[in-house]
Specification:
This protein is α/β, with parallel strands linked by helices. It has a single domain, classed as Transcription elongation factor, GreA/GreB, C-terminal domain (Chitinase A, domain 3), CATH 3.10.50.30. Helix content is about 20%, strand content about 30%. The strands form two sheets. Strands 5-4-3-7-6 form a five-stranded mixed sheet. The protein has a two-stranded parallel sheet with strand order 1-2. A hairpin with a 5-residue loop joins β3 and β4. It starts with 5 loop residues before the first strand and ends in a 10-residue tail after the last strand.
């Protein structure tokens, strides 16, 4: 049974403001993220499910082909400072992770086609930790 897509209201507001202040046509992967955000049910930060990937979450993912496991903090572009463990919501992987849940498998476009990652766990989710205004 398909899961009902959800988005934290604060994440939605901030991302849509960022896109509104951008120039030009966004890449396809950003357009896909925006489509998911617009179609998702907005949820107050205090009501976000524990398994939902939100901004500033620390996500453990696994490449389904290689079984390689990586851990990333999903951050806003203005907070991104090229640390290896940070991933911008404006990147292909970051935009695909936002609004997904633990257990989801996501196809990520790449230069050589695409690959699939599985969300294994949220090592940190701001809302679960009581950090509602981040």
């Amino acid at each position: 049974m398909p899961r009902i897509p959800l988005v934290n209201t604060l994440d939605k507001e901030r991302i849509l403001n960022t896109v509104a202040n951008s120039s030009g046509t966004p890449p396809d992967y950003i357009s896909q993220m925006l489509k998911r955000i617009y179609s998702a049910i907005p949820v107050d930060p205090t009501q976000v499910p524990d398994q939902l990937v939100t901004m500033n979450s620390i996500v453990r993912i696994q490449d389904t082909e290689t079984d390689e496991i990586d851990i990333y903090a999903l951050v806003y572009n203005e907070a991104y400072d090229h640390q290896a463990e940070w991933i911008s919501v404006n990147s292909k992987l970051g935009s695909a992770l936002l609004g997904r849940s633990v257990g989801d498998e996501i196809e990520i476009p790449s230069r050589r086609g695409s690959h699939t990652v599985r969300i294994l766990d949220l090592e940190y989710q701001p809302e679960r930790s009581g950090h509602f205004d981040r």
